[in-house]
Write a structure and sequence with these properties.
The complex is a heterodimer of chains A (116) and B (145). Chain A is globular. In chain A, helix 2 crosses helix 5 and helix 5 runs antiparallel to helix 6. Chain A has 116 residues and is mainly alpha-helical. Chain B is extended. Chain B has eight helices and no strands. The chains are: A mainly alpha (116), B mainly alpha (145). Chains A and B meet through helix 1, helix 2, helix 4, helix 5 and helix 7 of A and helix 2, helix 3, helix 5, helix 6 and helix 8 of B.
């Protein structure tokens, strides 16, 4: 059942993104940024936790999850350290994606040649 | 030729894309990515006995690695342009934009090329993600305590 939910959730998110791309002048950069902020917003509303328990990997794989983990990191940071915690905690959970993308990309860029 | 005529001409010559087909492709590909991610996460939980929340982080890394590798190997650009938002919206799009920016500017050197341009495309996601999360978390703290 969770596989069906994962399919539907990720699919509908991508469908919405595609509709925005096709019917407006926004670029993929706009749309991914928009969905990231929306992820933080749904995190703030307390809905993204529910999305993840509903759709599992479908909710954690789209870019909105990045916005959500940033929000979560900042919010939990505040619980531990107050205002300072927002600054120290914001990137803690999002670190995985950023460090992963930087390390893998850098090594691969050094190893491979661009195709013209 | 005045402005209106020119605009008309541009409109005529712009290739018409089939929006319905694009939307269906994005839906199917995006959904498939979601299913694959859930599958990897479940596999990790069963094979390595790690917690479900950790398995999603490993899955995230695997997806990023695979997308970066496919970009570096050269055929992912083609996939992205064919599947549209289906591969752009998932983390694959993030990894793809970082790696392809790195490859594109590799010839300009380590600092002014790769260093200055690696986040040329993905930078806006990180910027607005941080800005959004910062202000929403302040709102959250005020409202939920």
């Amino acid at each position: 059942m969770i596989y069906l939910n994962a399919f539907l959730f990720a699919g509908i998110a991508c469908l919405l993104a595609q509709l925005i791309l096709d019917n407006t002048k926004l670029t993929p950069g706009h749309v991914t940024s928009l969905f990231t902020v929306l992820g933080a917003f749904f995190g703030f509303l307390g809905l993204y936790d529910k999305f993840i328990s509903f759709a599992g990997g479908g909710a954690t794989t789209i870019i909105s999850n990045f916005g959500y983990v940033l929000y979560k990191g900042a919010y939990l940071g505040f619980q531990e350290q107050g205002i300072l915690g927002i600054f120290t905690g914001l990137l803690t959970k999002g670190s995985c994606a950023i460090v992963g993308a930087v390390v893998f990309s850098f090594v691969l860029v050094l190893l491979f040649k661009p195709k013209d | 030729m005045d402005k209106d005529e020119y605009k008309k001409l541009v409109k005529q010559l712009t290739p018409k894309e089939n929006k319905g087909k694009n939307a269906i492709i994005a839906f199917l590909v995006g959904g498939a990515i979601g299913v694959i991610a859930e599958g990897i996460a479940n596999l990790l939980v069963h094979c390595f006995a790690i917690a479900k929340t950790e398995s999603y982080l490993w899955t995230c890394l695997i997806v990023i690695f695979v997308a970066s590798l496919f970009t570096a190997l050269g055929f992912f650009d083609n996939w992205v342009s064919k599947t549209k938002a289906g591969l752009i919206l998932p983390t694959t799009g993030f990894a793809h934009s970082v790696t392809s920016a790195g490859l594109d500017y590799k010839r300009d050197g380590l600092i002014t090329g790769i260093g200055a341009n690696l986040f040329k495309l993905a930078g806006s996601v990180i910027l607005y993600g941080i800005i959004g999360a910062f202000f929403f978390s302040i709102l959250g703290v005020i409202i939920y305590g």
